[in-house]
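job 3f2a | input accepted
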Amino acid sequence: MVETVSLQDLFKTLKKRTLLIFLTTLLAVTAAGVISYQLLTPVYQASTQILVNQQKGVQNQFNTQDIQTNLQLINTYNVIIKSPAILSKVIEDLDLSTTLATLNGKITVNSAQNSQVVNVSVQDSSPNMAVEIANTTAEVFRVEIQKLMNVDNVTILSPAVLSNNPSPIKPDPFLNMAIAAVIGLMLGVGIAFLLEYLDTTLKTEQDVEELLGLPIIGLVSKITVKDMPDDKKKTKRKRRKRGDGLVQKKETANVSHLT
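job 3f2a | predicted structure (259 res):
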């Protein structure tokens, strides 16, 4: 027999396990907030922009061919900036106790499409160090590129600046807690349906019929006072009054006996 689950049964399961789903979501959000604010190290970013041109042509001007050549060399410049030839001098100038691979992982180099401007971004746990690495990398590249590719027209458009109140770019506690809320909600719903699936207790007549493989002939329903006929309600009330009267007589007899 193929077991079918109606949409109403799904909502009943969710309603039944509402507290479990809520607690799971709350726990996930709380854990994400604690981890984001207390355990994860904040990371700051500093950026600088470099304009790279080839040697100037006649009358101190650039022609279209020079610009196209510069655009084609942008990818080469991006690779050179993160090469050991540049980064080793950055480590030496700043006296950094780090490796080339670690420093390389902190630096991101990119450029907009059809642009001769190179963006150098540095991420570090110290905002001051991020600014120093970005500016030193740009300056070392400006000097060394003349020797490597005979390019003598490199301009630093905007050096990295340390703001008065720098804010980290990551972690983002609110984003982490939002993601944790979604994950916690999904986890809570999954646990709710799993518990419902593992619950093999008999709840309805259909469960009994499926277990025994026999048709149900009749049901014995629970009868409340509201469901009783009026005459039976009166009889029950009379019995209750008689019982109260007997209790009162017993209490009176006990008091007389004591006196």
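job 3f2a | The CA atoms of residues 81 and 141 lie 6 Å apart.
job 3f2a | closed
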